[in-house]
Amino acid sequence: MNVDLCFVPETRDITEQKLPAVSGSSGRLVVERLPETEPHFPGQVFADEQMDYEQAMLSFVAASQTQSASTVSSATNDGTVKAQKRALHQEEEALRASRRAVRQQRQLEDAAFSTLKVERREQKIAPTTQPTQQHRCQDETWHVIRKHRQKTVAHRKQEDVVWRERRNGLRERLTKLPWVTAWIAILVVTDNCTRQCLGLPLFVTGPKVTSELIIDALRVLLPRELKFLITDRGTHFTAKAFEIFARSDEFIHVLIARHRPQSNGIAERFVRTLKEWLKDKTWHGDQELTVLLAEFLSEYNSRPHQGLSIPGLSPNEFANRIWLM
After folding, report:
1. Between the CA of residue 324 and those of 117, 216, 319, what are the distances in Å?
2. What residues contact 80, with CB distance under 8 A and at least 6 apart?
3. How far apart are CA 289 and CA 201, in angstroms?
4. Separation CA 18–CA 278 (nearest Å)
5. pTM, whole model, 2 decimals?
6. What share of residues in the chain are helix, strand, coil (percent, to 5)?
7. So what's the pLDDT on residue 37?
8. d(Cα 25, Cα 144) in Å, to the nearest integer?
9. CB 3.0 to 4.6 Å from 30: which of 23, 258, 266, 276, for a disulfide?
10. Contact 197, 267 (CB under 8 A)
């Protein structure tokens, strides 16, 4: 069996471009950051050949102090990221509600104008038995209504421009915030032979998931006849509790080489497939994510798999054939 941990955000919105790349092989969560600007570090001052040694050292000290201050400020700001994100979502929802009210009001105005147009058409095709003065009054009234309508349409276009600017501004402010502030850990358990995924238990503790929680999940999923269990060297799998678990359940715990995730390629490829499937999905919390994982699990085990020794079979079909042999 191959076992691995992957991490996904606690919430996923459709406005986000992609799932962030993460690594948990070392027992710590490392998030890929998209480079926005060229990296700056204090030692760059020494690249200036025109600056003498004393000036370079003073500049280096000043740059180091500035960087330390910005690091502390960033750490402080991380605690308010959730509040900022919540406030932006509330502002976005308020903007959406106001837009909905404007559209409803416009529908009423359009319906009233359509009624006036019908009345005007009926007046024009009616027999000309009315006095000329009354016809002139009707024409003048209609011209006033049309001018008001034209001004209304022009005003609506300006309102639409302002609304789009506010909406785009909100989205831009959301994208500038850190991608994720809360994580969910997913335990991947795959059969090395059949490629079946036996389950995808998740842990709301995210990167703080313990070996004990993982062991409890594995006790339910692992087959009794298990001989080898392959994992990386993350702290969740190298803990003393996991060693005791392997001894009590009488299987051999195989640790892959350090910094060589390809040694556990089956689990790593499965994680990649899972991330690709989730990239266009949205969820808010572990309950919605659990439903998505169940859907993915059924789809993955039932579709043909190229990695099997008999191409064209699904993991479920291949497993059934093995049991019948």
Report:
1. 77, 30, 9
2. none
3. 11
4. 9
5. 0.54
6. 60, 10, 30
7. 46
8. 73
9. 23
10. no
Q: Check: CB of residue 99 under 8 Å from CB of residue 163.
A: yes
Residues in Cβ contact with 273 at an 8 Å cutoff, skipping those fewer than 6 apart: 300
Coil, strand or helix at 112: helix
Contacts of 21 (CB under 8 A, 6+ apart): 31, 32
In whole angstroms, give the CA distance from residue 192 to residue 46.
Answer: 53
Which tokens belong to 133?
């003065």
Full DSSP string of 288-316: HHHHHHHHHHHHHHHS--TTSSSTT--HH
Overall size of the chain counted in residues: 325
Q: What is the pLDDT along the chain (325 residues), one digit of tens a residue?
A: 888 888 888 888 765 556 665 656 555 555 554 444 455 556 666 677 776 766 766 676 676 666 545 544 444 444 466 677 778 888 888 888 888 889 999 999 999 999 988 888 887 776 655 567 777 787 888 889 999 999 999 999 998 998 888 888 887 777 666 555 578 999 999 988 888 899 999 999 888 889 999 999 999 999 888 899 988 888 888 899 999 999 999 999 988 877 666 667 788 888 888 988 888 888 888 999 999 999 999 999 888 877 666 667 788 887 777 655 4
How far apart, in whole angstroms, are the C-alpha atoms of residue 5 and residue 160? 46
Phi and psi torsions of 16, nearest 5°: -75, 140
